[in-house]
Amino acid sequence: xxxxxxxxxxxFNTEEPVAIKDVADSLLAMEKLAKRLPIMLSQLxxxxxxxxxxxxxxIESGSLxxxxxxxxxxxxxxxxxxxxxxxxxHPMGKPLKYGLLTMLVLLLISDSYKLLTDFTxxxxxSIQGNHNTIINLTADQIDVPQExxxxxxxxxxxxxxxxxVRAAMGVTKPIADHSNASLHVGDAGSNVAIPAEAMAEVPxxxxxxxxxxxxxxxxxxxxxxxxxxxxxxxxxxxxxPSVVGDKRLKIYFEDGVDIRAIAFRPEVxxxxxxxxxxxxxxxxxxxxxxxVSHIYPAERQ
Length: 301
Known about the structure:
single chain; 5-stranded antiparallel β-sheet; alpha+beta; 5-stranded mixed β-barrel
């Protein structure tokens, strides 16, 4: 096997003490996050990487520095030479070799924070804005089109998103919930960073299991596809064409809703709430069921 070694250094800028356990957790999480780096590196360089090894070079206290090294293995000397050429004869020059992996790590972490806040539905303008900035800065510094970098990121973050988000949160655990803390590529002077205002928006205590979200709609067409005139909690199925398309969903009724007003009508207008189930491993929320709160009389439709 032929190999190329690349450094990876993160600077955790914080005024508060960092717990030893959190540093250990961060390093273990980095191992899980780092397995996505060869995927991105292959996408960007066009070189097939067979495997990798991650090692710790040094840890510095104060504002924490984690300096690591990644050894990537290639099957032929031609593949090794192609990767070295990508790293060292790049328009950005040799310095690219010493910042590329760290920039990609920061991009993975930033993308994970965006996924997490999208999932929890928290308003996080600093995370979204800074994520766009990191993409632009990284694409500029490694001299690739932004679309190429975004494609590589999407390819690397596919699959188990829960694992990705947990790993990203684990890497930054040393400064989770610290005031005015930030994360930088290489050192505190780096302009490729997740600043304090973005870190403050990260919901580190979020539940990563599937969550439900209720979205109400008023006076919408509800088509009845199956019913049980004797029950309000089973046997009812319907479609909301203007809300969820042609997907058939189970129907429930709030207390006080008279199902006799709907029992002999194939379609009605109603006030409803659609319950969606979201999961980090799915890009969209999936509608699960309908709850009817009000049925409009036929003559008023």
